[in-house]
Each structure stands twice: as structure tokens, then as C-alpha cells.
């Protein structure tokens, strides 16, 4: 093994130990003491600095998606979509853009097993020539709730009980008994796809509806889909126990080993598109994040491929300090009015200013790889080199001008102030259809997992009945079979 491989790669790297300020360290073994037995002198600056650095090694973990693995690679356009969007990185087939991807689990801590039943994060940062575009999605195409007001409470119920730090079914069943909009998401989470075999054999979805804008200003609603070229693989309960029991980092290891061996994982990017003029024509709201768009009416159209061919150089730099944000869009792609998406536009940068500091976008992994310029400056941990006396705008001394205008969403906005739910909730049709699309064994496994949550001894009869009622509205057979299972367990 080459010992130099383990050395830091900084251009300032010295061949001997130093303090952080560069003073040579001639003894990195023994503290400075009075005599050989101590006590230690406070003037042992090297010891104090070493401990002080160590004491501060941890930064707050992400409040959700704490456990994850990152990899780098590129995105390549394979199909012309320039009639739909003026996004520079989608300008023509063959165009390549560097990316970094982070896959994650959602609920548990930074060191938790990767075999837990949980959605998986699928976040892609495109370093485009017009700034970073972050597609911060999941491996499931829908979400539990459709209003961000509910997100903190939802996460609290899914996280461990604050009293004993154990995830408990009764708390989950209780919270979601108030939220039938979550049924569709549960038909993914409690289905066989609820525990992906690893991060490579996993689909990804932008989940929300976004909007594409063409150069001429044409607006198109869009949903994004990633399909792995190696296919989708998942684990059933027994398999997950074996895999997770032998290696609680199996998915991180699988990704790292595959890339190190040159077996580069690849995904194809597809879009579904809709004319905004058609938004009101369906029995569901196309901006509702708890709904999918039926693929027979909105076929998947190929756009490009993503190849991950580089492992992170350093886990802390490229994973812990990595910051994704659904607000980071580029000209040619913008937000829809989806309320949940609008909440996310605020939340990510806010948590990252807390988690990483106000200058988190200067950290190399987050910084744009294109030229950028503004007068935001200073603050904690600012390390941007500035050599300018004009830090105000406008100025006759600063030649930098506004960028050329880019298309905006032109839909007129009007309405009273309201705190309301969507008019077309339609909470039961899509979950029912999905359940009926499965074979009997798959249906039975799903019902068993739902029953396990409801059999938690702290679930009340009221909560169980509400759930049976919800599932009956999705599919009467499903409701009856769930009720029978609960009765057999003496719980109804
Ligand atoms: C991470 C908030 C909904 C996917 C996070 C983080 C926060 C957050 C605070 C931690 C970010 C960080 O520390 O860097 C929210 C809120 C939501 C919401 C308030 C709803 C209002 C969603 C949805 C999806 C999603 C619908 C999927 C489409 C992710 C992913 C990450 C993440 C993939 C991890 C990104 C990474 O790997 O660093 N979310 N989230 N979130 N969220 Fe959300």
C-alpha cells in the first residue's frame, strides 16, 4: 500500500507535523508535563489545539435524511427537449453536465441501518453553466402530506418517541389517522418497494410538479422520473434482517464498491408533461403531491442519462457539507404553485444556514462551478477572495450589469387570503387502484405490515376503526381483509 495515499492532498502539505498555524511539531506523542508524571501545562498549545479541533468535529446532522451516501458523475442529454425548456444544460443531445448525487434514508440518525422501511432520498445537484439546479427527490413518486404546515408534526410522529427514543407504531397511526391524503404514500412505504435493496437499484422521482419554460415563454408542467438501468430491487423483511444484521452500511458500501470497481450505476431521466391549460380537467389536482399522473395519459418521455463514476474524495466534504435545496432552479425550469414545494423553497436554505453557516454556498461542493457575482459578503466563515472597493449596486465604477432576462411563469395570480385544503382531495382512488394492481400475495404482505402498525398495543379502537374506514374507501376488500386481520389479533 502506498503510504502517501493516506496523506492530505493540500498543496501546502508539509513533510512533518505542524500546528494549524504552521509551527513545526517535534513531538506528537507526549503532552507537555511537569516532570514525566504530570500535571499537564496549559501552555501545551499543540495539545489544546488538537483536542479543541477534535471536540468540534461534529456538525449538526440533517434534521431529516441524516444517513446518506454521495457520488459524483455526469448527466448527458440524449433527447432534444429544447422546444420545452431553455435550460442551458438541456440545450442539445450530447451536452454533459457534472453532477453530485446523495441518496439517503429519511427518519433515523446519521449512523442508522440502511435496511429500514423508510423512503429514500434521491437528490441530484447539476453544476450547470447557469448555476446549480437541485432536483431533491425521493424514491417514491408521491408524498404523505400536501401542506408544509404539517411537515414538522409529521416528522415528529415518524421519529422516535421523545420519551424513550423508540419509533412507535401508535404515534404514526395516530397522526396519520387525521390525514387520509397519506394513503397513497403508504401504498409505497408498506409495499414490497418499501426497503430498496441498495441505492443503485432504486428509482427516483422529482415528486412535485415543476414548470418548464421555453425561450419563447411557453409554459409546460412537468414531473421528473429517474429509472435505473440495472433495474429495481428491494428486500423483503427476512432479507432485510440478514443484510442489515451483517452490515448496517450495506447500501453505502454497495455504491462505493460498484463505483470503485468501474461498475458505474446509471439512470435514465424521463419527464411527463402537461399543458397548464389542462390543469382543471381531471378528477385530481395535478399539483397535488399525493398524486401521480397516469402514465397512459402522460407518457414518460426520455431526456437524458446520468452516470455516477466517481466516489467522494472525502465523506465530510462531499456528504456532510453537501446542501441541496429545491429552490435552486435555473432559467428554463421554475416552481409550480404546489404548496408543499413552496414551503420547501424556504426550509432548506434556512436549515443549511443553521447546519453549515451563512456562507454554506461557498463550501466547494455547494459552490457553483460557473462565474458568479453579487455583493453578499462577510459573515461567519467567509473565505471568498474579494478585491473590490465597490460593494454596492448600482455603481458607475462596477461594469457588472444585470443578466439577460429569462422567461418567467406568466400566470396571473388573484384570490382571497385563505387557509384551505385543495378542492379536489380525492384521497382514495389512486391508493385503491394501486392495491388492486398487485397479486394476492403482495396484497397480503401489505395488509400484514399495516396491521402490524395498528396492532401496537397503544393504538386505540378508534384509531384502528378510522384506518379500516379509510382503506375500505380505497378498496372495500382491502378494508375487510385488514379488519379480519385485526380481529384475528384480538384488536378490533
Ligand atoms: C432534506 C425539509 C419535503 C426530499 C430535508 C431537510 C429539511 C427538509 C429541513 C434537511 C436539509 C439539510 O439539512 O441539508 C422538508 C420540508 C418538506 C420536505 C419542510 C415539506 C414541506 C420533502 C419532499 C421530498 C424531500 C416532498 C421529496 C420529494 C428531501 C431529500 C433530502 C431532504 C432528498 C436530503 C437532501 C440531502 O441528501 O442532503 N428536507 N422536506 N423532502 N428532503 Fe425534505
From TrEMBL:
Which SUPFAM superfamilies does this chain map to? Heme-dependent catalase-like (SSF56634)
Keyword Oxidoreductase in the entry? The reply is: yes
Q: Where in the cell is it found?
A: Peroxisome
Ranges of residues in domain Catalase core: 18-401
Q: Which SMART domains match?
A: Catalase (SM01060)
Pfam families, per this entry? Answer: Catalase, Catalase-rel
EC main class here is oxidoreductase
Which residue positions does the secretion signal occupy? none
Instruction: Please write the reaction equations for the catalytic activity of this protein.
Output: 2 H2O2 = O2 + 2 H2O
The Swiss-Prot or TrEMBL record lists the needed cofactor(s) as: heme
Q: What is its main location?
A: other
Keyword Nucleus (UniProt): no
Record keywords: Heme, Hydrogen peroxide, Iron, Metal-binding, Oxidoreductase, Peroxidase, Peroxisome
Q: Any idea of its EC number?
A: 1.11.1.6
| Cited function | Catalyzes the degradation of hydrogen peroxide (H(2)O(2)) generated by peroxisomal oxidases to water and oxygen, thereby protecting cells from the toxic effects of hydrogen peroxide.
The UniProt similarity line reads: Belongs to the catalase family.
UniProt name for this protein: Catalase
